[in-house]
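User: Structure please.
Assistant: Input sequence and predicted structure:
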Amino acid sequence: MPFVVGRRIVVSQDVVLEAAMVSWLEELDRREAAAREEIAELREQIVELTRRLAEREDVLSRLQIMRETMTEILSGDETVSVAVAESDAGEAEMEEPRLPAGSPVGVRLVPHWTPELAVGVLPGSYRDIVEVLQDAVHPMRAHHLCAALGLSTDKS
């Protein structure tokens, strides 16, 4: 015998339970599918982020190595070792005698300025420039500075 429950007409309690179970199972299946889809998307993002992280770590590593190498080359305080690979594949790399440090292009690393930095830490040519500028009575243009240092300003 049919009866009314809320806005539904229930023919029998067995039919309502079966309809509720199917609806419940369908909703559970839908939610599981959505969760699996989200997990797949997150895994793809993890793969992409892992790849990007590895790339950035590689760039950072190369920059750190470059900083160390350039500091060693330009500092002039240490010696630089040069390893040369032999042309024979059977022989191991041999280390050449240590070379005097310093830049092969004549560049010297100058420390960052601080108020307590003494002029004596600068290379000789820098100290000369500072002395000329300290002795100047008026502001100097570049060609006046060069003349005071005994440098030629001819472009010919």
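The longest strand covers residues 3-5.
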